[in-house]
Amino acid sequence: MDPTIIALAKAAGLDKALAEFPDDVQAAAEQALNNAGAVLVPTDPTVEPWPPMRAGLGL
């Protein structure tokens, strides 16, 4: 398994899943890495992808 995937899994607290289901962890990581380009990251850090969450609005 790729050491980067192992490091990311451990950083995410997936030690038990990594030990019991290494193939599943690897498949999930590969799928996430292959789809990472589909996520649009805002170029302006002050822009939110949706309105701020406020209690009471739209109720």
**Could you estimate the helical fraction of the residues in percent?**
40-55%
- According to DSSP, the number of beta strands is 0
C-alpha-based Rg, rounded = 17 Å
Contiguous helical run count: 3
Structural class: mainly alpha
Distance between the termini: 49 Å
**N-to-C SSE string, H for helix and E for strand:** HHH
Shape: elongated
The largest sheet, given as strand count, sense and whether it forms a barrel, is: none
Measured by DSSP, the beta-strand proportion falls in under 5%
| Mean pLDDT rating | 84
Short précis:
It is built from three helices and no strands.
What do these coordinates show?
This protein is mainly α. The protein has a domain at 3-38. It is built from three helices and no strands. It has helices at residues 3-11, 15-20, 22-34. It is elongated, with a radius of gyration of 17 Å. The chain starts with a helix and ends in a 25-residue tail after the last helix.
Features:
59 residues; mainly alpha; 3 helices; 47% helix; elongated
Strand and helix map with partners:
Layout: H1 3-11, H2 15-20, H3 22-34
